[in-house]
Fold these 4 entries.
Entry 1:
Amino acid sequence: MLEVKPPVKIGFILFYFGILTFLIYLASPTGFFLDIVVSYMLKNQLHSNAADVSLFRFIIAIPVYIAFIFGFIRDSWNPFGMRDRGYFLLFSILSVSVFLAMAKFQLSATMLFIGLVALMVFSRFISAAYQGLMALLSQENMMAGRIAVIWTVIGSLPDIAGSWGSGIFVQNISSAHTFIFMASVMSLLALVACWKPRAVYGHAYDQPAAQRSNLAVDVKRLLRHKPLYPAVLIMFMFQFSPGSNTPLQFYLGTTLHLSDSYYGYFNAIFLASFIPTLLLYGYLCTRMKMAKLLWMAMIITVPQMIPLAFIHSASSALWAAGLCGLLGGLAAAAVFDLAMRSCPPGLQGTMMMLVAGGSLLATRGGDILGTYIYGISPDNGFLYCVTAITIVYLLILPVIAWIPKEIIAKADGEVNPIVVPEVWAQSNLPLHPSAA
């Protein structure tokens, strides 16, 4: 068997990714904080309607839909000789400059569009490096499940804080000061990029899972990589949730006449309620084969959004948020675990950006479809949205059978006797005797 890194080193890897995750998610233009604040800038200050807001969200995210390009660049280009840290440093500095420029100019739809598209591009390079590095370390240390839990739990904290505080920002903080705050967060990421802990970077790029070939071979290898397709499709379907974004925002505000803060409160409780079942996944992933855990997680998440159909007041909205979150936690960790396990050697950035692009395309595309469905009927439009979400989640189950069995055959921390030799065979290094 391959030698596993000692627990202390694995613990430090989780700690390091926890710091990166918090800063990247807090400053991300796709994160809940900035997304909600911008949506209220459009709704309240620029007087956009629901269709305009959902379309704006969809268009500015175009760089994310083609994020595999940024992932492929990450797998090929080594800025400043710093590998992934070079991406963190360069593109965090560029993002700071854009946020400061947005703070200087008068608020307008044009300014928001140009600034956010630029931030989307820069953030894709950062995400490609961050997610590619996570996937690489997860494969080298057989810890995809545990990294998935750290990723989703820590990644939810900025979104929880942003969801809860976005209403306060909208009501009390100017748009300029909001963008200055975002610039300060991104500056912290630039500082972290200067740190090179040996436990993370010491041998990360000289292992078989990190090896690449030439462009033509890599493209062919990516397209022939069977685990890619079900992993991307399952993530797409899990994030395709027509009704849980713009329709919910307008349902709470326009139909139920709740204040803008309630949409933020809903999202904060929703995300916080994921955490108990995310932590449960962290406990189970080292004790159960992933195949069994994945089936269990997806069956539980099928009815996740049904509580939305019973929202008729402020209190019922908050109760529904908590229940929806609890039902979705296991699946949220499982889809990220699956994505990292499914990465081909040396193309972790490309694969993870395919997953990320499909994820946001599903979110924004589902938002547009949900807005259309919501507008069909003043009385039942939101109920139709909930029905659509449930049907999509149910259809995830047959896709699980498409996943190559060897990818999900083992629990977290177990050496896979089928996958490990294949990784060595696809690399340019000879097979180590202990991996045979």
Entry 2:
Amino acid sequence: MWIIGDIHGCHAELDQLLGQVPEDEKLLFIGDYVDRGPDSALVIERLLRERERSVFLLGNHEAMLLSYYLAPDSREALAWTYPVNGGPTTLASYRLTPTDPFEAYPPAHRRFFTEDLRLHYEDEEFIAVHAGVRVTGSTQLARQQREDLLWIREDWLRNEHRWNGKPVFYGHTPSRYVLGLAEQHEPIMGQNSIGIDTGCVYGGSLTAIHSQTRELIQVRAARSYV
């Protein structure tokens, strides 16, 4: 299975990356398909073409989008309106305004956001979540808190070496900020985890990693989009 990092509206890079992945192999997308980059609507359309062989995880940016329409008084809904979080770029990609209802999205895209996205994935060999896990919590993913799976950052990065479960693949935190190098576009190779957000939307790379062999496929961003 190939695990693909945060896309954030970078359709051209996604299309190029998928062209390099064998068509008969399964895919797992780590979340954050929308926001910040210019082509969120095209990204979702491209992902729908891969639905039959794919697992799609919920990212915090999809959670914010859903909250904006389905829980408008929530903190996540408000956060999505901030330009730094990229909600306005997603609206622009759909040619929508902030006052348009959720029903203005294409039906297949609405179903993608509401039905196709899961909080976590686990098989015999590894775990995949969007942001990380709380190491003081249960190794059973169903007992982890939703907010941690979508939003955790420092507590996970500082303590991943203490995780006693299966290896964890995650996104959410661009590797260059963890590794301290502005031009660092490689995954974060932890003791018990691999971080695969390599900052495509910031001018880094879009990364796919094979869950067994750890082979990498990377596409450099055409430019920084933010």
Entry 3:
Amino acid sequence: MDKKDFINAVNGLGALTVAEERITQYFMKHYTMLPFAKIDELCKQIGVGKATLGRFLQHLGFSGFLEFKKHVADELAQTLTTPVERYEVTQHTDNESILTKHYDEVMFNMTKTFASISDDDFERAIRYMQNPKGKLYVMGSASSEALANYFFLLARYLRKDVVWLKADISTLPHQLADVTEDDTLFAISYHRFSTITIRLVKWFHQFGGRIIFVTDQPVNPFVAYCDIQFAVESGSEGFFNNRSSGFALIEAFIKGLSRQKEKNNRFNRIESVFDEFSVF
């Protein structure tokens, strides 16, 4: 079932209840991510009960959410586009400059992202990152690796025991051997998702560590395991999705971490090491 088929099926139901309208709007907005969703977390994000969602899908002709997911996944497997295909589809013939378009795109993504972030979630994430009893593990795969590495390098100025996790399955077990419930994992993953990152998040969750996750897809394979999830906008008419709002959020985390009391001593020590190695 593709998105058009879904819309047609919903239209065939006639008048919708408030809950059904909410489900429909959410599904339409996040259709490509539904195959990754777990029903408990999905219902929480939509704000409806599992029974309500089940009845709605039965009205559409499915036995339940699992059957619906399978139909969506089968269709998406045939229709997912590459960055080149997406770029060709979204080209326009107007005379607006690339620079102006990009500026508008960045500002739209930034505004929408920061409007959706809860101050309470942000402050809680900072507290987890600052926890002096545990380590702060950092990981990002593919294009997310650059964002994660930027955060890692600056976080090292602000607290001790910041651990960089390389997305290499042969070395991860050695790096994770000492994880405790006092530790925090900060993971970044944009669509498409890395199976290594998924396995890492699940493992960290099993051992009781805190998990802070940044992604551009609110419905994803990680959502059931995260303590806090930040969904950032990444819309773009170019070859690749836009990472600007994710980068801005990372810089906000660094600002929050800079309230760490020990930062001055660490700054001075790192600066002295730079001087020692003639790095300037």
Entry 4:
Amino acid sequence: MLDGTEMLKLLVGLKQAGDIDLAWDEEVLATVCEPQDQPRVHAMAAIVHDLLGAFDYAASPEYLATREKLLTPEKQREAAARCGRSLTELLTTNEAYALIPAARHPLLDELKRLAASFG
């Protein structure tokens, strides 16, 4: 029977091969674990499926830390100034939408609507 590390390797391999459903196959389980371990294997398989299925390296702490290192204080100041300029040009360009996170785009839309209302 497999130990914890071997089980993780098996489940990750199954997920990467697109065969994670085999973690619920009775014949497969009989070869890798005791019957009383099956609920734990199912729970582990569900977690592996979720973690690898939703994996986004760009959102990982590792990537964000690397990106943060590249952002010097000078570049941050330049970007902030550029963002300010883009807000002043909101009625004529869409540059602000490239600088402001998408979750805040409704605020840009409202700001644009209000600015346009001045005629």
